[in-house]
């Protein structure tokens, strides 16, 4: 990330919009998202963070973020992050002409006002506009809308993209969500750009990372970042084994959920129950600790009182002996 900042410039000199998936991409997900949040707090009008599909509990519970939080700081931090993710914006608009999101377009999207009217906090479920904005993909296998091979959301072709640009009165769509070999890929006469900023992704692809640079005249250029491939600790995860431009499907996600070491499940409801159970256990332990402290304090007070009474009794006996 620091290398990317060195290439494209530093805030507050430039404005930056990030397209999601800040976590589950390595062993320092917590540090990455916290670093970006610090930048957002300091430069709130220069840094913009959009939500990706990994900023949802059903996904980041599986791919490492849950375990990282639990091991480093406890499960409570993971729940705090979910609360934050539910408040993240789903899309961004640059100069009223460039629409940015993590996933892609939606057949339900007929007006940009629909995005503005999304009430937050919100959690994408399994269908609808919210899911499409973080999960859909472009395809060159047709012109219209197709069910996504991922198992949820849609794939959209050239015709669907051009129709959406005309309907929404935009010139360009910029999205992420897929590994591309050069770090960026243009489609449909430069109407759509896929951007991927992590070079040598997962230690398996010798891909470049890239960022999109847009000037005041909306002219687009790209800055690439390459790192020499080397030994990398690769997570045992089917998503890593996907070819560039592809990603894990929903059935694969469910399979990972049932076979992963964490033995987690995709269902958000199940996750909520597990989280509530963990929280109750922590609360119970805390109450027991407080109870022990309170009982210990009472025992100490009782002993002090008994000692005081014994001292007073001894003093009275001593006074009586003196009088005699």
Automatic annotation (TrEMBL):
Residues 271-324 have a biased composition (Basic and acidic residues). Residues 265-324 are annotated as: Disordered. It catalyses: O-phospho-L-threonyl-[protein] + H2O = L-threonyl-[protein] + phosphate. GO terms for molecular function: protein serine/threonine phosphatase activity. InterPro entries: Calcineurin-like_PHP, Metallo-depent_PP-like, PP1_catalytic_subunit, Ser/Thr-sp_prot-phosphatase. GO terms for cellular component: cytoplasm; nucleus. Keywords: Hydrolase. The keyword Magnesium does not apply. Residues 50-55 form the Serine/threonine specific protein phosphatases domain. Its EC number is 3.1.3.16. Belongs to the PPP phosphatase family. This is Serine/threonine-protein phosphatase.
């Amino acid at each position: 990330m620091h290398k990317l900042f060195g290439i494209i410039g530093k805030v507050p000199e430039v404005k930056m919009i990030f397209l999601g998936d800040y976590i589950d991409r390595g062993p320092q997900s917590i540090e990455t998202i916290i670093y970006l949040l610090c930048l957002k707090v300091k430069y709130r009008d220069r840094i913009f963070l959009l939500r990706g599909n990994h900023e949802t509990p059903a996904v980041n519970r599986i791919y490492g973020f849950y375990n990282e939080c639990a091991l480093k700081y406890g499960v409570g931090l993971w729940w705090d992050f979910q609360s934050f993710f539910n408040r993240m914006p789903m899309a961004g608009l640059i100069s009223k002409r460039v629409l940015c999101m993590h996933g892609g377009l939606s057949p339900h999207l007929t007006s940009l006002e629909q995005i503005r009217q999304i009430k937050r906090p919100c959690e994408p479920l399994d269908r609808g506009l919210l899911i499409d904005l973080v999960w859909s993909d472009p395809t060159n296998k047709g012109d219209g809308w197709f069910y996504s091979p991922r198992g949820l959301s849609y794939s959209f072709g050239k015709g669907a993209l051009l129709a959406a640009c005309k309907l929404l009165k935009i010139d360009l769509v910029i999205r992420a969500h897929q590994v591309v070999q050069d770090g960026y890929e243009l489609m449909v006469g430069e109407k759509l750009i896929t951007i991927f900023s992590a070079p040598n992704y997962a230690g398996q692809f010798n891909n470049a990372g890239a960022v999109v640079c847009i000037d005041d005249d909306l002219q687009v250029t790209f800055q690439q970042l390459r790192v020499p491939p080397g030994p990398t600790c690769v997570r045992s995860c089917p998503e890593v084994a996907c070819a560039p431009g592809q990603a894990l499907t929903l059935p694969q996600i469910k399979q990972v959920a049932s076979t992963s070491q964490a033995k987690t499940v995709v269902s958000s409801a199940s996750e909520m129950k597990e989280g509530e159970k963990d929280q109750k256990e922590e609360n119970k332990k805390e109450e027991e600790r407080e109870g022990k402290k309170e009982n210990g304090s009472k025992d100490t007070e009782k002993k002090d009182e008994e000692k005081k009474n014994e001292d007073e009794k001894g003093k009275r006996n001593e006074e009586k002996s003196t009088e005699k």
